[in-house]
Structure formats: C-alpha cells, structure tokens
Design a protein that fits this description.
little secondary structure; Alpha-Beta Plaits; two-stranded antiparallel sheet; 2 helices
Length: about 110
C-alpha cells in the first residue's frame, strides 16, 4: 500500500533505521484494547501511528485535526439518545437496601 496523504504528527513519529516502514489498512468489526498494536508487533512491525478513519457509519473523509461537523444519529440509534434527568438536573436517586428497611427500634 502506498503511504496515504495524512497530516503531520506532533511530536513527529520517531524514525527507526533498522525497522521497515509499512502502511496497513485494517478493518475491524469489533476491536479489543490495543488489538491492532499487538497484531502488528507480533509480525515485527510495531505500530508507530494509528489513525481511526471510520467509526460505525461515520467517516473522517476530508476532516483535518481540530475540525468538526455535526452529524445526525443514523436510523435506529435514537434509542441511545440521553434520557432526561430528574428535577434540578440530577439523575433520580436509587433506593439502596438500607433505605428500604424499617427504622430500627432502640431499647434501653
């Protein structure tokens, strides 16, 4: 794969004379913690730069670092919108076990 046209990284990626440089495109359905870094290190190509270009239905396309744009949730994602909070902007309190018990009677 030819090196893609990407923005400069600050601080720059360190140059390694003894380790070959290669660009990989990896498509995952579900990623685990550091999965790509572990896979590339296992075959002798440590990951020096990792760029996420797409997350679900959203793609970076021509967005540059620091730029943003608003997107509408895709169909079916309405269920993930934040739920309204209780009075005073706080989430409603949940009852704990101790609050369900009847008050204890102290005897002397």
């Amino acid at each position: 794969m030819a090196p893609p046209v990407v923005w400069e990284r600050h601080p720059p990626v360190r140059y390694r004379a003894n380790i070959p440089t290669a660009w990989l495109k990896v498509v995952l359905q579900e990623g685990r913690n550091r999965q790509v870094r572990r896979m590339t290190a296992h075959i002798g190509h440590p990951t020096l730069r990792l760029i996420r270009a797409q997350l679900g239905p959203w793609q970076l396309d021509d967005l540059q670092p620091g730029q943003w744009r608003e997107v509408a949730p895709p169909k079916g994602f309405e269920q993930f919108t934040p739920k309204p909070k209780g009075a005073k902007g706080k989430a409603p309190r949940r009852r704990t076990r101790s609050s369900k018990r009847a008050p204890s009677k102290k005897t002397r």
